[in-house]
Task: structure prediction
Amino acid sequence: MTRPPGATAGRLAAWLSLVGVLAALAYASYALEDDRTPSTDLFYRWDLFVGGLVQDGLLLLILLLIVRGGPARELLALRRPRSWLRAAGWMLAVLVAIWIVGAALEPFLHAGDEQGLVPEKWRAEEAAPFAANLAFTVLAVPVVEEMVFRGAGYSLLSARYGKGIAIVGTAVLFGLVHGLVYALPVLVAFGLGLAWLRNRSDSVYPGMFLHGTFNGLAILLAVTL
Result:
């Protein structure tokens, strides 16, 4: 892929500052937590939904300010993949790979329990906030995070340092902004898979679909099994 127009050092510095601040805030919050016992009812609360809307809305606004005039669509890789058929195969391969990695590491890290977002059981009386949070996690979160990391981040890093650095760099930073310790290896592995998919498909759309599918399956399996 040729260097995208607008992939300037200034935009890269602004993007690195954005994700650096996000990671610092996430780990500061982690360090200040008094109770390490994860909550299992967050998905049934409206404040999670509202807070997510505000947070991702601000993040998207800052991102658009960084890439404006870039042109933005090119920097964000908002274009059709080279082949949807091949992209579907790559998505399936990455999904299976991350499930294997997660299952292999879970006995040692217990990463699935650290964040505390995934509910343990279905509560029909609180279906409305659950549906709102599920839709947000499956639709909004993947769109925003993929544009931040596999869109702008990958474009800006690859233009200056090459595709290898872009894949590894966006994966590590993607893991760090979640502000977790035990889940970090799994998050980085997922980020590597998503960045590899971005590189192979030359588009951010397959990653959005994969990210949303992964999130949705994790939540639905948790409340049904």
Notes: The chain is about 75% helix and 0% strand. The CA atoms of residues 111 and 182 lie 5 Å apart. The chain has one domain: 9-33+82-224.
